[in-house]
Design a protein that fits this description.
Elements (H helix, E strand, L loop, with lengths): L1 E7 L4 E6 L2 H9 L13 E3 L21 H17 L1 E4 L2 H9 L8 E3 L3 H9 L16
Parallel strand pairs: 4-5
Antiparallel strand pairs: 1-2, 1-3
Length: about 140
């Protein structure tokens, strides 16, 4: 799932969740997205700042996060690290190559700067940060 901040022609801002960036595009082209405030179906994505986890600035999980949620996050992260290739700081470059079919598709994870993530999203490349776990915040 991907969350976009959306803006109608009347300048009302709202959020929308979509299965993928392509899913958003399909719904937008079909006129299936409308502003909840005024009903206007002329909607576009607003400029967004992605929530990026980097080694020097990590978004902390709430201290009261239930153990079950932490377990699910731990499982997601384990699945990614066990089934995808770690590409380190080459993440943006590799993700772009996969997206534009310059190399064989495969699951990857690594590091990216906020600027890298912004340009990847602008290019239509879906990216998602790995969950930050309590043990990462020590």
């Amino acid at each position: 799932m991907i969350k976009y901040t959306l803006l109608c022609d009347n300048k009302h801002e709202f959020e929308g969740w979509f299965p993928s960036s392509a899913g958003y595009e399909r719904q937008a082209q079909a006129g299936q997205i409308s502003c909840p405030s005024c009903g206007n179906d002329k909607v576009s994505k607003a400029l967004m700042t992605p929530n990026v986890v980097s080694s020097d600035k990590r978004t902390k999980l709430p201290e009261t996060l239930p153990a079950e949620v932490v377990g699910v996050l731990r499982n997601i992260r384990r699945q990614v690290t066990e089934n995808a290739d770690y590409v380190g700081p080459r993440f943006a470059e590799e993700a772009r190559k996969i997206h534009f079919q310059e190399i064989e598709p495969r699951g990857i994870y690594g590091e990216a700067t906020a600027a890298d993530v912004k340009t990847l999203l602008e290019d239509g490349v879906e990216v998602h940060p790995l969950p930050v776990l309590p043990e990462d915040q020590n």
